Amino acid sequence: MPSKGTVGFCLVLTSYSKDDTGAKIVEALLSSRLAACIQVLPITSHFTWKGKTARERESLMLIKARSSDFEAVKDTILKHHDYEVPEVVSLGIDRASSGYLNWMMDVTK
């Protein structure tokens, strides 16, 4: 069982609008064991881009990964993403069930 501070985990967020972009990111992260689980949710994003307000349908990707792998996860997302400035945000996981933490540790490198 992982002890607190032994292996830290994070939730990495990114969004995209093209299905093939999402598929490339998912495949790259899972095949390299950088992500334990990736969930994809449909969303509507409202934002300002190049001085104009925009509204776009996108997919939000929730990536569960080891905190120590954030840079590799970020680099993988950037390599496969088609946005000029993609969202890559990491949120620390400070609490989770021990069974889920054990599973995440087993399936990531």
Give the low-confidence spans.
1-5
Helix share bin: 25-40%
Total count of strands: 4
Biggest sheet overview: 4 strands, antiparallel
Distance between the termini: 16 Å
Overall structural class, as computed from helix and strand content, comes to: alpha+beta
CATH architecture: 2-Layer Sandwich
CATH topology name, in short, is: Alpha-Beta Plaits
Can you tell me the overall shape? elongated
Q: Report the total helices.
A: 3
Strand proportion: 35-45%
Mean pLDDT: 94
How many domains make up the coordinates?
1
Reading the helices and strands in chain order gives: EHEEHEH
Q: Looking across the biggest beta sheet, what order are the strands in?
A: 2-3-1-4
Q: Which CATH class?
A: Alpha Beta
Compute the CA-based radius of gyration: 15 Å
Q: Please, what is the oligomeric state?
A: single chain
Which properties best describe this structure?
109 residues, 4 strands, Alpha-Beta Plaits, disordered N terminus, 3 helices, alpha+beta, 38% strand, single chain
Describe the 3D structure.
There is one protein chain. The chain has about 110 residues and is of the alpha+beta class. It has one domain: Alpha-Beta Plaits, CATH 3.30.70. The chain is built from 3 helices and 4 strands, in the order βαββαβα. The chain has a 4-stranded antiparallel β-sheet. Helix 1 packs antiparallel against helix 2. The longest helix is centred in the first third of the chain and has 13 residues. The radius of gyration is 15 Å and the shape is elongated. The N terminus is likely disordered.
How do the strands and helices of this protein lay out in sequence?
Elements: E1 9-16, H1 19-31, E2 37-49, E3 52-66, H2 70-80, E4 89-93, H3 98-107
Antiparallel strand pairs: 1-3, 1-4, 2-3
